[in-house]
Amino acid sequence: MNTYLVVNLVLLGLCAFYCMYLFNSLVARRNEIKNAFAQVEVQLKRRYDLIPNLVAIAKGYLAHEQETLEAVIAARNAAVAGLEAAKAQPGSAKNIEQLGLVDSKFCNAVERLTLTMEAYPELKSSQNMQQLSEELSSTENRVSFARQAYNDAVLNYNTLKQSFPALLLAPSFGHGSDAAPLKFADTLAIKVAPKISF
User: Fold this and answer.
1) Domains of the chain: residue spans and CATH
2) What is the pTM of this model?
3) Separation of alpha carbons 167 and 170, rounded Å
4) Which one, of 143, 185, 150, 182, lies nearest residue 36 by Cα?
5) 139 near 50, Cβ under 8 Å?
6) More confident residue, 11 or 56
7) Burial group, residue 183, by CB count within 10 angstroms (0-12, 13-18, 19+)
8) What number is the average pLDDT over the span 146-168?
């Protein structure tokens, strides 16, 4: 009889340790998503902060292109607002999807500005414009890496949460069965590589 009791206690202890391990793993993975999104946020803010400088440099050369410049600033402001909304809940599929949409519109507006500036050789050869171009290009690479890290963190979290037996226990630990948003990317940027050359 004592052996039966000891075996049951050992099994119960193992189950308790597994539950603690699972709970801590789920919390760690969710925190990795938040951290990865924070890195995306830093890079997107850097990108969005470079745009007013770009517009300021271009204003003198593109006085008759006011509509294009205003469109870029409006798209930047919408993207910043989308970033703030996504920052509030980086695990929300709706917020991440919305951020992807406004960021895509922002990239389109910058692309239109870039194409407009191509017609101005003196603007392209400006020292400030060349330096800003290099910073923008570097930032685009950082955004891509940060997005990939975010997607990897979400994948790890979703895989853990949807694996058996975690699938049975995760909802009781506050990690619902709904998957965190996996795709966070500019869908237009996937189809067409960004061209930032001045």
Assistant:
1) 40-191 (1.20.1440.20)
2) 0.74
3) 6
4) 150
5) yes
6) 11
7) middle
8) 88
